[in-house]
Known about the structure:
Blueprint: H1 17-27, H2 32-36, E1 42-45, E2 62-74, E3 81-87, E4 92-97, H3 101-107, E5 113-118, E6 120-123, E7 126-130, E8 133-135, E9 149-152, H4 157-161, H5 166-180, H6 190-196, H7 201-209, H8 214-246, H9 257-265, H10 272-286, E10 292-297, H11 303-316, E11 320-324, H12 328-342, E12 349-352, H13 358-370, E13 375-378, E14 392-398, H14 405-412, E15 422-427, H15 433-439, E16 444-448, E17 458-464, H16 468-480, E18 484-488, H17 496-513, E19 521-524, H18 530-541, E20 547-550, E21 563-568, H19 576-583, E22 593-599, H20 605-616, H21 620-631, H22 657-673, H23 683-689
Parallel strand pairs: 4-7, 10-15, 10-16, 11-13, 11-14, 12-13, 14-15, 17-22, 18-20, 18-21, 19-20, 21-22
Antiparallel strand pairs: 1-9, 2-3, 2-5, 3-4, 5-8, 6-7
The structure holds adenosine-5'-diphosphate and magnesium ion (MG).
Amino acid sequence: MKSRLDTEVQFLPGVGPRRAMLLKSELEVTTIGDLLHLYPFRFIDRTSIQQIADVRPDSAFVQILGTVVSSNLTGKGQKQRLSVIVRDRSGEMELIFFKGIKYTCERLRPGSSYLFFGKPATFNGRINMVHPEIDNPSPDGAPNSRCTLTGVYSSTDKLRNGGITQKVMNNLVSAALAYAMEDIQETLPEYVLREKGLVPLKYAIRNIHFPSDTTALAKSQYRLKWEEFFLLQLSLLKQKYVRSRSAQGIRMPLVGDAFNACYKALPYDLTGAQKRVIKEIRSDMMSGCQMNRLLQGDVGSGKTMVAVLSALIAVGNGYQACIMAPTEVLAQQHFADLSKYLKPTGVRCELLTGSTTKAARRPIHEGLEDGSVQIIIGTHALIEDDVVFKNLGLAVVDEQHRFGVEQRARLWSKGASGIPPHILVMTATPIPRTLAMTLYGDLDVSVIDEMPPGRKPVKTILIGDGKRPVLYNFMKRQISLGRQVFIVYPLIFESEKLDYQNLESGYEDIVSRFPLPQYKVAIVHGQQTSEVKKFNMDAFAAGRADILVSTTVIEVGVDVPNATVIVIESAERFGLAQLHQLRGRVGRGSDESFCVLMHGDKVSKESRKRLDLMCATENGFDLAEADMKMRGPGDLEGTQQSGLPVSLRIASLAHDGSILSDARSYAEHVLAQDPTLSKEENRPVLLELWDEKYDIRDFSKIS
Ligand code: ADP
Ligand code: MG
């Protein structure tokens, strides 16, 4: 049977072919059903009446009930202006009209009362309203006989010019509801509505457009948001269940001697969070299913040690492990760290990167093939075709966001005898919990939420270009105390040439202010050969240089505990996540550390706010959360939320985190009872999930 929801909007009264085209091109509305699923993004609340004395100039829209005291017409022709004084028990207010003056004069009779609705403004120190809407008060004393919460829909200039005003939208939706209401099918099983106390879909759709009161609106919004998250989580989790049943993994029942030897020789105790995460990983690797785990941990939280111990579990079970880093510098650093940690274990570990010479490559390739190389560290070079493993059991990928889908697939194919290796992806990019649940809904997530003891918070300071001399003096004092300084320049791809110019001139400036022989300045950037890069990095790491001027190549990983200052040039050009990463380069030792954000002359209000947030917030997850709230779920006219697998119609990751958590755990509960959703009672959701928008298998960037 054909549903009336599928009828094209063109057949609604007042919508001809031209308006139908506009609705389609501007709002992607083709059918009556589409129209009913286009929800207002805010409401004009006319449920209450304010006292004139309570109206403030910065109030949003207000509604007053006033008696007309006097009207006064001034000016002539175009300049005509009607001033109406109205009064209630609390005071008086002036209303101003420039248009429709004749009509207004006739309508407003002195001594009668009307409802006025508008946005207050100030003129000559007094509050007035320009062009308020006028309504007659209803006889029963209710503020307004019509609906008192009026929806406001997304709009564009084209729509407005095409005659589709807010009023027209309201009428269209009203007509659509009258026509197709009965054909709206419930999408959630009856038991879900009952157990979660949700209102039925019909009720929700009617009240999201024309709420009978604020409670009905709140219930309807909740139901629609909950459903949106619930379906999304169901589809993600269902894929995860299917995969974990089908993806066979290598069973690794042992901890092994290498693990124990390394553990015993550690110079410090693991933090509680590190221990917990290692337990989670170990239980995955024992399970016989393939591990697909995302490890999140703020910069400096000690992820490397988790990677090392995980690799040693693989080794202890007779398998090889690889650790992939996004840059050469970082791979080298990992190799240096690991060699230290692995010393007591006797495990053979090698480094393979793009700059490994042909001669050095041979024995490494052979060692990987015969299994004598047990752990290999490297860059993308590791996943090239000529790299063959004897039995790769674990792949650790550091900083996942730089690996693409294809590279990931290649990694999988390198597993032992066709069984994919366990995968551990480590990231220091803090993703708010709610976002992680959605973006990585089909992965397991571990979080290191505790810092190793003894780390001091990094003081973050924002200064303008004019204060450069103060900064240089400060740097000199720090250097005289034996500390080191990073200076970072932005490198944004589109203007690479200009950026390098900035970097070079910045470097020259620094060298002239910090002259030899008293000061030594090194420079590192992406256009150097890897030998030069390594030489300069090593010089800084070993303390032979006081200042390192660089692009963001130092963003990830690089560990120089003696560096106490990082100066970030043109900080407004970096994203918050990246700034936080950079800040993590300092504060690694026991000395007090500083992050100095330099900003140019013209910083937008928006950027300024973000930089202030950087200064006020130390914790990466709090920062990410605040950033998301600040940027919000799309602006006034738009609704897009970038980076999401599906677009959300009403729910917001930034503001509805608790609804998301609830919907997710309920989705888990439903799937535990019925993993394939094949029970009759779950039929409605299964039908919903057939919608192509839930076909998001390609989305997960990792597994
Ligand atoms: P991440 O990779 O998460 O940014 P690292 O693994 O580089 O952090 O660790 C940062 C620093 O903390 C390193 O110098 C490391 O040796 C040290 N570290 C790691 N775990 C601990 C711990 N449990 N106690 C003390 N120091 C630790
Ligand atoms: Mg690291």
